[in-house]
TrEMBL record:
Record domain DUF1722: where: 102-164
Pfam families assigned: DUF1722
Superkingdom of source: Bacteria
Name of the protein: DUF1722 domain-containing protein
InterPro entries: DUF1722 (IPR013560)
Amino acid sequence: MSVWRVEAWDLSPAYLNRRELLWAWHARGTTPGGRARLAAELWGRGERVALLPSGPVAPEEACLDPQRIAEQLAWLAAARRWRTPGRLPPPLQAQRLWRQHKYSVMARSPRRYRQIGREVAALPRGVLPTALALELSEWLLTAPTPGGLRNAVQHLWGYVAEVAPPARGEVDGWTSARLLRETRDRALHSRQPYLLESTALGELAAWLPEEEMDR
């Protein structure tokens, strides 16, 4: 697989490095929703970029190809020896893949979040099922509910709540956008490893209510 075929990239854009993200941004076939998700990932890395609403997923994006997913996983593993990595390191086993995606799934389905956690815990170390990568990639194309998004961001906030803590009770009045932005800023400042390896730190920004995106 050519690295520059990123317009057909199915895994999280968090695996792409900055050069690849920008290449995907300018690719002819990139849909408005795809561009919104790329912008959200750049935002999650602290880049100064305007967030775009994801909107409905285009039909050509909704049906992911398991073979292409497998090829991209294999490419990430093989290319790690020479390629500048993205925000997320290559997921060489199911446990890391799940850890990277768990809060993104929580934002969509707490029930499936719990189920996948049990399923992955039962897997032997060193395996990376394509079916798991496919499902997690599909969840990233699913709009979270407002309550689900808020719940996931609150869990993310818990990792950095003690970094420059705000006044007592102030957080309760923050919008989900403000809470995600404050979480991102503290995660980048403190280099919080768990959050920096979470797809949710970037991708959830594409699904914020439009009226909150600039707040």
